[in-house]
Amino acid sequence: MSMKNWLYAWKDPTLNLILLEDSAAVIGVALASAGVGLTHLTSNPFYDSLGSVCIGGLLMFVANFILRSNLETIIGKSIPPKQLAGITSDLECDKVVRGVHDVKTTDMGGATKFKAEVDFDGKMVSLNYLSRQNKKAILEEMKCAKTVEDAEAIIVKHGEGISDQLGMEIDRLESNLKKKHTHLRHIDIEIN
């Protein structure tokens, strides 16, 4: 693989940047030295000016190359469709997920950002919440409710618990995705 192809294929833009900037600095010093040296030897300022123009051209070339080689990273390159389908499928196969919408990914040099809107199955989230509760105690609470305000207080209490359960489900989904897809660095699951 040629050096040019290797630089274009490399996923981490910082390596290209450092390598090319440092190379340009070394070459620039050589050009400046040559220009000043020739000017001193010939007493002709043309060579100093020529050295400056060459350094400017070198910097333009390096800037253009860095921009072209890192353009996908700058504007946000998506991951391959097959990889995206695998992540989406893993989400859709979970029992609390009814659907996955508006999926967006950005590959930032090997670290992938993933965002999706998830339609949760409220019944499954509620059942998961209830599986962690003492159902007999809930039944007793309901039996003790004598007024609308009492019933409302019970519903609000358990509604808050179900909301917390939804947050735990999101955390669980994100954790499972990070374990299975190690390239994912930032996962944003939003409720649809």
TrEMBL record:
Originating gene: LOC106152019
Alphabetized UniProt keyword annotations: Membrane, Transmembrane, Transmembrane helix, Transport
Designated name of the protein: Zinc transporter 9-like
Chief location of this protein within or outside the cell: membrane
Organism: Lingula anatina (Brachiopod)
Lineage: Eukaryota, Metazoa, Spiralia, Lophotrochozoa, Brachiopoda
Topology within the bilayer: Multi-pass membrane protein
Cation efflux protein transmembrane domain ranges (all copies): 11-74
GO cellular component, one term: membrane
Stretches that traverse the bilayer: 15-38, 50-67
